[in-house]
Write a structure and sequence with these properties.
This protein is 25% helix and 37% strand. With 241 residues, the chain is of the alpha+beta class. It has one domain. It has a seven-stranded antiparallel sheet. A hairpin with a 5-residue loop joins strand 3 and strand 4. The chain is globular, with a radius of gyration of 20 Å. The chain starts with 6 loop residues before the first strand and ends with a helix.
């Protein structure tokens, strides 16, 4: 498949169109027409993007672009699509029958209109599947549905993201590549939360650890969580206040 840029060069090369239609031609599932809308709340102008290194703290050297889209496959109302378009097309295309595909640009080239991409089938790992789902009878289902209808007002959750040193090394210590990956994950989660729970996610702070780990990971998850809470309380909470 190939892809065109969503940047609005008439206004600003770092600003992306609010609505785009992307046609993907594949050898596996034929032609897909994606109807996409820019996720305008994934982060805001006041969002604080920082990197931490041996020189201290500093803001990102380049402006973070909002190139994160959500939508559907044309003709497939139960489908959902969450992709980014900053450097080619990256994300997920899922259908109502449970089939899902990831899309990713091949390495090299300028990631322009004719740049080739890989479309691959994805599935949940065994570890990610819930094996203790209870059987709920129809009476409970109706009660739950009524309860959900009462709270249809959209709720917003503000997020602080941390790219730890091991994560940054996986992305070659490239601040822009790492933040794109993190925001792509938030974009997918936001679409799923908004569809199922009417909850929206918005990033208000993010930091990347360029030089060292600032939090120990333990085999006992409670110890790791306790350390994370201590770090957030001491180093992040006061910033957002």
């Amino acid at each position: 498949s190939s892809f065109f840029s969503s940047r609005n060069y008439f206004l600003n090369a770092s600003v992306h169109y609010k609505q785009v239609t992307i046609v993907i031609r594949t050898n596996v599932i034929g032609r897909l027409k994606l109807l996409l809308t820019l996720n305008e709340i994934i982060f805001v102008n006041e969002t604080d993007f920082r990197k931490l290194d041996d020189q201290g703290e500093s803001v990102f050297s380049k402006r973070v672009e909002n190139c994160y889209y959500q939508g559907v496959v044309n003709g497939e109302e139960s489908s959902f699509v969450a992709v980014s378009s900053c450097n080619g097309l990256r994300g997920i295309i899922a259908f109502g029958n449970g089939t899902a595909f990831g899309i990713w640009p091949l390495d090299g080239g300028d990631r322009g209109r004719r740049h080739p991409h890989v479309l691959y089938r994805t599935k949940w790992s065994t570890e990610a599947l819930c094996t203790t789902q209870p059987i709920v009878d129809s009476r409970h289902s109706r009660k739950a549905a009524v309860k959900r209808d009462v709270t249809r007002q959209t709720k917003y959750v503000e997020l602080a993201l941390i790219g730890d040193h091991s994560f940054m090394k996986e992305h070659d210590l490239a601040e822009d590549v790492a933040i794109e990956y993190m925001l792509e994950a938030v974009n997918i989660a936001d679409l799923m939360f908004s569809r199922d729970l009417n909850v929206r996610l918005s990033v208000i702070y993010a930091e990347e650890w360029m030089d060292a780990q600032r939090l120990d990971a333990h085999a006992v998850i409670e110890r790791t969580l306790s350390g994370a809470i201590e770090y957030v309380t001491g180093h992040i909470y006061h910033i957002r206040e």
